[in-house]
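Good morning,

Attaching, inline, the backbone tokens for the sequence recovery test we're adding to the shared suite. The designed sequence is right after.
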């Protein structure tokens, strides 16, 4: 007869198997979802995305950001791609999404895939794959099989996407509401190693941090002085590199920048105030 110790080990193993089964049932995505229904889907996505990025390397960052903005509102179901109608303002017309670019890349991939296998491959999968292919950085396996949503509501963007002025507690709660933990938050924020920002997304830290005309004391004051030269008060059009000097390369520089108190957004600078994200 089995002793109590081996029974409890068996119980733990069974529980783990059940949790994993439950997770995989909840997620019907799998690697190579289109391997029989549309074998060239991933290759077409890669080829066309690479062609676009070759012509316009600066599209990589907004495609990665678009994938993030898609996933945080109603899940990764391409609702960020839908157009507004007379009766409905869609996500892509919400303020945080007005600076998204690269929709033409997804449209071009979708058109090419539709020629090869009509009505099979979702735009949500195309966006997930294109974002990875575009950044020319780390590779991550992408299970596919996402289905496209039909609902896209601008107001939901503001209630689901964390704004640039969130502190680490607020960011942690925002990510937790999407099933992501604080480590995911720190890892995913590395997306800010590429790309650009418009001045209003961080100028409060330069000119009006607490509403009294002050600067963000957490930021390196030399960096503030440099940034003030680029972004004058009220400037809404100038763009700056988020990770100065290496904003086109997907490296780990972002973490060095943040640790030097040069994180551009408050949502980056705030990582130094929490022991987990600081580490
Ligand atoms: C943690 C919460 C986050 C906040 C508050 C945030 C906020 C912002 C803001 C304010 C901008 C600049 C927009 C502009 O002024 O044009 C930006 C840009 C960007 N974000 Fe985030 N972000 C967050 C997380 C992420 C994540 C998770 C990713 C991807 C993994 C990401 C990828 C990017 C990229 C690539 C850009 C540059 C876009 C471009 O060059 O057009 N961000 N983000």
């Amino acid at each position: 007869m089995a002793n109590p110790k081996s029974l409890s080990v068996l119980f733990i193993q069974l529980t783990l198997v059940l949790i994993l089964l439950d997770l995989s049932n909840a997620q019907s995505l799998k690697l190579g979802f289109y391997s029989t229904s549309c074998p060239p889907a991933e290759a077409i996505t890669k080829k066309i995305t690479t062609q676009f990025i070759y012509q316009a390397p600066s599209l990589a960052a907004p495609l990665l950001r678009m994938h993030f903005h898609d996933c945080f509102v109603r899940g990764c179901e391409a609702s960020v791609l839908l157009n507004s109608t007379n009766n409905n303002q869609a996500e892509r017309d919400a303020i945080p999404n007005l600076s998204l670019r690269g929709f033409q890349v997804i449209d071009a991939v979708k058109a090419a895939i539709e020629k090869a296998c009509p009505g099979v491959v979702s735009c949500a999968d195309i966006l997930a794959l294109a974002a990875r292919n575009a950044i020319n950085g780390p590779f991550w396996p992408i299970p596919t099989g996402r289905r496209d949503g039909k609902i896209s509501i601008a107001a939901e963007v503001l209630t689901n996407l964390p704004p640039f002025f969130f502190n680490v507690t607020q960011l942690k709660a925002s990510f937790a509401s999407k099933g992501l933990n604080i480590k995911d938050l720190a890892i995913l924020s590395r997306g800010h190693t590429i790309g650009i920002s418009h001045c209003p997304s961080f100028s409060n830290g330069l000119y009006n941090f607490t509403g009294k005309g002050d600067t963000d004391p957490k930021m390196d004051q030399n960096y503030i002085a440099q940034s003030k030269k680029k972004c004058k008060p009220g400037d809404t059009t100038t763009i700056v590199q988020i990770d100065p000097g290496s904003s086109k390369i997907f490296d780990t520089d972002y973490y060095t920048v943040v640790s030097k108190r040069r994180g551009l957004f408050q949502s980056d600078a705030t990582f130094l105030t929490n022991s987990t994200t600081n580490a």
